[in-house]
Amino acid sequence: MITPPSPHGSRSETAETFLRDFHNAGPGRQSVNTERAPLADGRTGYQVLAAEVAGARRVLDLGCADGGLLEVLAAAGARELAGIDLADQELALARLRPALADADLRQGRAQELPFADDSFDAVVSHMALMLMHDVDRIAAEAARVLVAGGRLAVAVGGGAVEGEAMSLFLTLARPYFDAASPERSVPRLGDGRARSREGLDELFGPAGFAPVSWDTVVLDMGGTPEQVWDALTEAYYEMAALDRDQTARLRAEFLAAAESLRGADTRVPAGMRLNIATTRLHHATD
Ligand SMILES: C[S@@+](CC[C@H](N)C(=O)[O-])C[C@H]1O[C@@H](n2cnc3c(N)ncnc32)[C@H](O)[C@@H]1O
Fold first, then answer.
1. Is residue 139 within 8 Å of residue 200, measured between CB atoms?
2. Measured in whole angstroms, how far is the alpha carbon of residue 9 from the centre of its chain?
3. What is the pLDDT of residues 30-61, one digit of tens each?
4. Strands 213-220 and 271-280, how do they pair?
5. Other C-beta atoms within 10 Å of 134: how many?
6. Which fold has domain 15-159+185-220+270-280?
7. 90 CA closest ligand 1 atom index
8. Across the strands, what pairs with 130?
């Protein structure tokens, strides 16, 4: 799921309640969206992230939801898998995946990991860290549960490719999101520092991690205008703030405007950047 960036340091007591309720009401959406929006080379965001921790045997996923990334890690050879998520309905779906029959899946907060010190070779998180608050605590917790030299790999949203349909959608949707009635509005989610290379270094450096390596890939959410609308409206938490009439008006505006983006193959391009940050926990002697 995606949310436009929130300002540095913004926190909300209600953010986790919103996220838990949202994901319990509609579990499994992020993995469907991830699997239908691959890179140009056909890989999914899960596969890109899993490759960053190749060879790790014990892996923990922060904000694992319905286990899409954990399943890819299992297929890649990881043997002791664990995940934590706020939403128990997401975890219920994860438990239905045969590949995760032995995974240690916990309902809880990434800020308070219910795992022993030095128990993982890698910690991963896909499209979740940028929604979380108290990220300094998450960094400290990740460092605690990782072995010395252990790897951390996170994928965070990097925004829309300009001139394509996701960018168009955001331009059209912004006034609707801003005008949402206060009782429906979505709380500010996450800490803006989790979205940038410098911010992640600021958060993870003090916990003992080396400066992050940074890579950007582009996910293709393109299709017919209707398919793109479906994918984007599934992906944005802020759509929950719009009533039926607002949603219908935004849809009509988007579908009309998206016609101008149709290529010769009648497809509308809708690129979204995914930023991949990887680092290692320093060895005790570093
Ligand atoms: C956009 S979804 C991504 C799910 C999954 N990583 C994926 O890519 O398929 C974000 C997930 O993070 C979880 N989440 C958000 N804040 C969390 C926190 N503080 N601790 C644990 N899970 C959290 C949400 O419940 C949600 O399932």
1. no
2. 19
3. 898 899 888 989 999 999 999 999 999 999 99
4. antiparallel
5. 16
6. Rossmann fold (3.40.50)
7. 27
8. none
CA distance 60 to 50: 11
Ligand 1 contact, 63 CB (< 6 A): yes
Q: Which tens digits make up the pLDDT trace of 183-231?
A: 888 888 999 999 999 999 999 999 999 999 999 999 999 999 999 999 9
**Best probe residue, ligand 1, of 21, 34, 86, 239 (max atoms within 8 Å of C-beta):** 86
Q: Which two tokens stand for residue 177?
A: 């999101």
Beta bridge partners of 281: 209
User: Does residue 90 contact residue 65 with C-beta atoms inside 8 Å?
Assistant: yes
Q: Within a 10 A sphere around the Cβ of 9, how many other Cβ atoms?
A: 9
Predicted TM-score (pTM) above 0.85: yes
1 lines ligand 1 (CB under 6 A): yes
The domains of the chain are located at 15-159+185-220+270-280
